[in-house]
UniProtKB/TrEMBL annotation:
Domain of life of the native organism: Eukaryota
Keyword Zinc belongs to the record: yes
Name the UniProt record assigns to this protein: MYND-type domain-containing protein
Gene3D superfamilies given in the database record: 6.10.140.2220
One GO location term (cellular component): nucleus
Molecular function terms from GO: DNA-binding transcription factor activity, RNA polymerase II-specific; zinc ion binding
PANTHER family with a match to the protein in the record: DEFORMED EPIDERMAL AUTOREGULATORY FACTOR 1 HOMOLOG SUPPRESSIN, LD37257P
Alphabetized UniProt keyword annotations: Metal-binding, Zinc, Zinc-finger
InterPro entries: DUF4470, TF_DEAF-1, Znf_MYND
Occurrences of domain MYND-type (ranges): 1145-1183
Record organism: Pisolithus tinctorius Marx 270
Length: 1186
């Protein structure tokens, strides 16, 4: 395991999700099959909602193949139970009982009977993989291996067994269950519960009090109450909440709430309720809405399941029970040779090795399961295993496609700045880490997001004690938009010394918990801050194996003298005096670098043999040959654990590690494997092997604890006369244990030569009957000069943390280009796109793709006319520091994926699955929408809007958001009369260049925002006059040249994101090889930026409302607010911010600009004479002289 080993004192059970459902396919074009890897996702809400909301091009739904991994088999048992219930006949008639079985802790008789009867059907099917495959549910739910099926079946048996409890068993079961519920009630009886309010999205303020009260009612009664009069009494305990990895003790997490999984905004958007205490009205609405959403999603699944067979299943859900990092490593090794030293264990505290089903996961599988995925969702696993651990194992599984997306989310400490939060996560400069890993958060480049997490900001504004901030990132490959040829050509290179220092900076951040200065800083804080910092400082994720695997991944992308890099890195680590005990992990670091594929000069076979001859270690005297790496095993007697067990469990999440001491030498090993059981050893010398007979009772049993870790044999030789021990890692949080364990924090230690407790083996012990599954090493690839054409050299700044420039080397191989270069023709470079430059040598041109955005206009050229190459040294411009920019059109990115348009930072959505809502007649009840749309603006932009009447730099993003603000507020009448017809108009051109007709305002519930269901019509000469006759009363939105160009790039994306039609073979995008069409044409109405493939499709609503012209030329679009990125800019409201509506031009709607009042009525204001003239036809009816 690359993660540290936590003591398993308290394991919470998460039967239900704590965030609302999302659509897993929202980044995929509708033509693409979805191969989804869902890690740690918990309950199936996201699968249910994806099946419902997924966009398809016809009646034939997209094929969904979803692989679910969770370390808690009880979660998978519940999920499988749900899918089998939906697969049965008459499922729709039983949805009310199915809701109860899945979401209620207390059940009525009908629901309990349904659960027990289903378990009776499922238990025999779980006897073996063959029995499951031959059963009625195999085409819907597939098991990744026999261990998963066995574990899932074990829980089904436990649930079924409760129906046969005798009186004593039933009493104990009931008392344990009810005491667990009461403890949660007591925990929150005097406080407000805010976590579920996230699910209300933009209406969080309206729902705040109600969700808190509903949460308390749920834990008091065990049910959700929608106010229905025919609710049956629920007096039976639901066994699916009673059993987990923690055994039969009640372990349901105290934040569990059924409503958290759903989209509560739908219940409140049209309710007319104001921000006040109307809990009695809100609770029934949100409960009923949650039930209705569950029913609707389930019906979508039922239709899929009942209309497909095993050979043509459009929905396949695969189950795997085990730890996510190990599962990813096992998937990666499926098509790779199984060589290595470190076995892949199922989970921490287990000795069973991952063994996937060969009929699904082998090179010769007839119908192989996916091992490469275009969607990887990791839920909030980074809170539990660390971001870099997760990215290192998931990026190799992400398919090489522009639409492939990797999602991470986290609950971060709310007190730090957003920028600091993301830096702490990635352990370095975000641009540098992204380049090294090969993926980057899409919003980091685009500077906007169509997803909103403004509910987090609102909660923090209301409750200062709120300590967490929810952040979700979508990562994409940095090769987005590059052709396959250019991908092969681009190859990263570094100066070895710079790369070593860059890696050392990452290393220092990964292990910053060992920085004595930071520990002292925590102790100097006030009590409240100290408590929070201690809580988070005790959460440690990384071991030296984490760092070694990270470097191994980087080595697959970077061409460099890796021997020199590793040697320089070694010197930096050994000479660093910042960490308290960092040098003590050096032997562990060296071992895992070796295991990751790096050949270390001091650990080769010759050096090992030389050291053995010199040291004559007694451990290896009976060995005929000593390998470079061995495994040290320590058997810790149970009494050594028992005396401190309760203290360990009470302390939170203490970390265990091993230490070897010899004289004054002390080496620590944090990457250890552990399990409870009996160690059976056989053989001698290098032939000694060990097998663990695992104690299924685990921490609650009486068996000894067996720990093991790998170590370089040469390191062990010089310390073989010492001791090996198991210790608690010292942190601020574990300080109370010193009184019992002493300063060394040692639980147990023994001489390395004491074979009663210590063993040295050639490989790690595993459980009996296991087939070894090894982690494949990531060996740095050999450099092939024949495939390199123009590598990208990375130059770091003086701190070696930030990228200063990227240098592209281009060999001129074209004869015309060579001749022009040799003849002395001038060489120039221009910016071609955000991350591309074009070089010109007379008539020769060449486009250079860079991995990250660069400033080609300020690039330097190195020209070698005799050697026939050109180097372009371009400053890298990607940064967290956002400033005003006039040209932002390149931030709206699209690319082709096998001829299909793919979007960069704009999620797709099915407009027909987005609920529309009616506007309330009460202006106060509709305040939430104005607040939500205003959250588009960062605090910087808010202040800039306030000062915009004064000369200064132009911020096109802010102007664009202001136009969107006008569209939303005018459509809803928030700041005046309702307008639903808009034209985009540049005063420098004649007429408008695009018309927008809004037919609905909908909730984009999965992204917690709103969307304007709109239709875009070009303003070209042949259409404009016809439209003017058909549509009157338009609101003109004035855009300058830069904003007009931004709209040119944005409009095609707004159309593409809600597309339900196929692009034609003659699509203009393909003909011109460009999205948008005619980039640079700005507001030229006759150069329409979007293709004609979707014109006139589904426009019946326009034909009825306006006429045939609109219906013929309109294309549907989904217009959303463009939110500032929380880790790049401060979002929220400060007391001195201009939070109220700005005075606006009556014609174009722009605010924050100098306005002139109508000289006649003195009431209406305009930004220009052109606007006043355009509006006169409308205004003169109401213009009264004052």
């Amino acid at each position: 395991m690359s993660h540290v080993l936590y003591w398993p004192g308290r394991i919470y059970f998460y039967p239900l999700g704590n965030t609302s459902a999302i659509c897993l396919t929202e980044e995929l074009p509708p033509e693409r099959q979805a191969d989804v890897l869902f890690l740690g996702g918990g309950d199936p809400r996201n699968i249910l909602y994806t099946v419902y909301a997924d966009a398809s091009l016809s009646n034939e739904p997209r094929k969904l193949d979803i692989t679910c991994c969770d370390c808690e088999a009880a979660v998978l048992a519940r999920n499988t139970l749900l899918f089998t219930l939906l697969a049965d006949h008459c499922a729709e008639d039983r949805l009310s009982s199915i809701w109860n079985v899945f979401y209620h802790m207390m059940l009525d008789e009908t629901s309990l009977s349904l659960l027990i009867e289903q378990c009776r059907k499922l238990v025999p099917l779980a006897e073996s993989l063959d029995s499951w495959r031959q059963g009625p549910y195999a085409h819907i739910v597939s098991m990744c291996n026999s261990d998963t099926l066995s574990e899932i079946g074990r829980f089904w048996k436990l649930w079924l067994g409760t129906s046969n409890f005798n009186a004593k068993q039933a009493k104990r079961f009931k008392e344990n269950f009810q005491n667990g519920m009461k403890s949660v009630q007591k925990r929150f009886e005097a406080s407000m519960v805010v976590t579920p309010v996230r699910s209300a999205g933009p209406l969080a303020q309206v729902a705040l009090l109600a969700v808190s009260e509903q949460f308390k009612r749920f834990w008091a009664t065990g049910v959700t109450d929608d106010g229905s009069p025919d609710v049956k009494p629920a007096n039976n305990l639901n066994p699916t909440f009673a059993f987990s990895l923690f055994g039969d003790e009640f372990a349901v997490h105290y934040g569990t709430d059924p409503l958290s999984s759903f989209h509560l905004a739908e219940a409140l958007a049209s309710s007319g309720l104001e921000l006040s205490n109307q809990t009695g009205l809100v609770i029934p609405k949100i409960v009923l809405t949650a039930r209705q959403q569950f029913n609707t999603w389930c019906k979508a699944v039922i239709r899929r399941v009942h209309n497909t067979s095993a050979s043509s299943a459009s929905l396949t859900v695969r189950m795997y029970a085990g730890e996510a990092l190990a599962f990813c490593q096992a998937l990666y090794s499926v098509n790779r040779p199984s060589v290595g030293h470190t076995p892949i264990f199922i989970a921490p505290w287990r000795r069973s090795v991952v063994q996937l089903d060969d009929t699904l996961y082998s090179p010769n599988a007839h119908s192989p399961a996916p091992t490469s995925f275009n969607v990887i969702d990791t839920s909030n696993l980074i809170d539990h295993v660390g971001l870099l651990n997760l990215l290192t194992v998931t990026i190799p599984l992400l398919s090489d496609s522009p639409s492939s997306t990797l999602y991470t989310e986290a609950l971060l400490p709310a007190g730090d700045s957003p920028a600091q939060r993301i830096l702490d996560q990635v352990c370095g400069n975000l641009s540098t880490i992204s380049l090294l890993l090969g993926v980057v958060p899409s919003a980091y480049i685009s500077r906007f997001s169509t997803r909103s997490n403004t509910s987090e900001t609102m909660i923090q504004a209301i409750l200062r004690s709120y300590t967490q901030y929810h952040e979700r990132l979508a990562w994409k490959r940095i090769s987005f938009g590059h052709s396959s040829d250019s991908l092969q050509e681009a190859e990263l290179s570094f100066t070895p010394s710079q790369l070593a220092r860059t890696l050392f900076d990452i290393y220092s951040r990964m292990f910053s918990d060992q920085d004595l200065g930071k520990q002292r800083a925590i102790m100097s804080l006030d009590n409240s801050q100290m408590a929070q910092k201690i809580q988070f400082s005790g959460i440690i994720h990384y071991t030296r194996r984490s760092f070694a695997l990270l470097i191994a991944h980087i080595s697959t992308r970077v061409r460099c003298d890796w021997n020199r890099v590793i040697n320089d890195l070694k010197e930096l680590i050994l000479n660093d005096r910042t960490p308290m005990v960092g040098g003590n992990f050096f032997h562990e670091m060296a071992c895992h670098l070796y295991l990751a594929g790096f050949r270390l000069p001091w650990s080769n076979p010759t050096e090992v043999q030389k050291c053995r001859s010199n040291e004559d270690p007694p451990i290896f005297r009976t060995w005929s040959a000593v390998p470079e790496v061995v495994t040290v095993v320590l058997v810790v007697p149970r009494h050594a654990i028992a005396k401190i067990q309760s203290d360990l469990s009470d302390i939170g999440t203490p970390t265990l590690q091993c230490e070897i001491q010899f004289n004054l030498n002390w080496s620590a090993f944090a990457c250890i494997s552990a399990s409870f059981g009996k160690l059976e050893v056989s053989g001698e010398g290098e032939n000694k092997v060990a097998v663990v007979m695992e104690d299924t009772a685990g921490i609650k049993g009486m068996s000894p604890l067996i720990v093991s870790f790998p170590m370089l044999s040469i390191s062990l030789m010089v310390m073989s006369g010492g001791t090996v021990g198991l210790v608690v890692r010292p942190t601020v949080g574990t300080a109370p244990l010193v009184s019992k364990l002493g300063l060394e924090m040692c639980l147990f230690k023994a001489l390395l030569t004491d074979e009663r407790s210590a063993h040295v083996l050639t490989s790690a012990p595993i459980s009996a009957n296991d087939r070894i599954s090894w982690e494949p090493p990531l060996v740095p690839p050999e450099s092939d000069a024949t495939t390199r054409r123009h590598p990208i050299h990375v130059e770091m700044d003086q701190s070696n943390t930030q990228i200063q420039s990227l240098t592209a080397h281009v060999d001129i191989v074209d004869p015309v280009g060579q001749a022009s270069l040799a003849s002395g023709c001038a060489v120039t470079v221009e910016q071609w796109s955000l991350n591309k430059a074009k070089i010109h040598v007379d008539k020769y041109q060449h486009i250079i793709p860079f991995p990250l955005p660069v400033d080609a206009t300020n690039a330097k050229l190195r020209i070698a006319r005799k050697s026939k190459y050109v180097e372009v040294v371009a400053p890298m411009i990607l940064t967290l520091n956002v400033k005003e920019e006039s040209n932002v059109s390149e931030n709206f990115r699209a690319a082709f994926d096998c001829g299909i348009p793919t979007l960069w930072s704009m999620h797709r959505l099915n407009l027909d699955r987005c609920p529309s809502f009616k506007l309330s007649t009460s202006r106060k009840a509709f305040d939430w929408l104005g607040t939500h749309v205003r959250f588009m603006f960062s605090q910087r932009e808010r202040l800039l809007r306030k000062r915009r009447a004064f000369p200064g730099p132009t911020d096109t993003f802010m102007n664009l958001k202001d136009s969107l603000y006008t569209l939303f507020t005018s459509t809803t009448g928030l700041e005046g009369p309702i307008h639903t017809e808009f034209t985009l108009w540049n005063p420098e051109e004649k007429g408008f260049y695009a018309m927008i007709l809004v037919t609905d305002i909908r909730l984009d519930v999965g992204s917690h925002t709103v969307v304007a269901d709109s239709w875009i019509i070009p303003g070209s000469n042949g259409i404009r006059d016809k439209l003017m006759r058909e549509i009157a009363g338009k609101l003109f939105i004035k855009t300058d040249a830069n904003e007009s160009e931004a709209w040119r790039h944005l409009l095609p994306l707004l159309i593409e994101r809600c597309r339900t039609w196929k692009h034609k073979p003659s699509c203009e995008y393909l003909v011109h090889d460009s999205i948008p069409l005619y980039p640079g044409a700005g507001s030229d109405a006759n150069k329409v930026p979007w293709c004609s493939c979707g014109m006139g499709i589904g426009t019946g609503v326009l034909r009825e409302r306006y006429g045939s012209v609109s219906a013929k030329y309109a294309t549907r679009a989904a217009i959303s607010p463009l939110f500032a990125v929380s880790y790049m800019e401060e979002i929220g409201v400060k007391t001195d911010d201009p939070v109220g509506p700005l005075e606006r031009c009556a014609a174009c709607g722009k605010g924050g600009v100098p306005l002139s009042v109508c000289s006649r009525c003195k009431r209406v204001k305009y930004c220009s004479k052109d606007c006043q003239v355009k509006d006169w036809k409308t205004h003169k009816k109401n213009c009264v002289m004052t």
